[in-house]
Write a structure and sequence with these properties.
The structure is a single chain. By secondary structure, the protein is of the alpha+beta class. It has one domain (3-32, 46-79, 105-139). It has helices spanning 3-29, 56-61, 105-139; strands at residues 45-53, 67-76, 82-85, 97-100. The protein has a two-stranded antiparallel sheet. The longest helix has 35 residues, at 105-139. It is elongated. The chain starts with a helix and ends with a helix.
């Protein structure tokens, strides 16, 4: 077994989940942002992930298909903005409605918990691989 490939796979998961947490934090930070450089309210961002092919020689040698993960792209959620009646706000339209970001606190909190659990699972896999390496070295003594 190639322990480095296991570590590389888990490391790719750690990297992607960290970036996912960054995007979620950005969404939460902008939950009330009604004016951006593009004009209009902040649009929620989402991470699109895809599998990452690992070393081809390793896959052929062990007749396996070890895959990691990588970020394919970061996209903006096209869901409609929330409209709130607030005629005194400077960004309200002529009818008195304010467009607020399409960020939902519950959805972002749930996504944050899922990213955290995935991050923890990758750490557990790295620790297990480390223990296997230590045991293999002890056998060789």
């Amino acid at each position: 077994m190639n322990f480095l490939k296991s570590l590389e796979t888990s490391a790719s998961g750690l990297s992607v989940q960290r970036k996912r947490m960054d995007i979620i934090a950005s969404n939460l930070a902008n939950i009330e942002t009604t004016r951006t450089d593009k004009g209009g309210p902040y649009r929620r961002k989402m991470v699109v992930m895809r599998t990452k092919e690992m070393d081809q020689d390793f896959n052929e040698m062990f007749n396996s298909s070890v895959k990691g993960v990588q970020i394919d792209e970061i996209v903006e959620d096209q869901a409609p903005f929330k409209r709130v009646y607030n005629p005194s706000h400077p960004d309200a339209d002529s009818d008195g409605y304010l467009s607020k970001p399409n960020v939902d606190l519950i959805v972002e909190t749930t996504n944050m918990l899922m990213a955290r659990r995935a991050f923890e699972a990758n750490i557990a896999a790295i620790k297990a691989t480390r223990q296997m390496v230590i045991k293999a070295l002890e056998i060789g003594r």
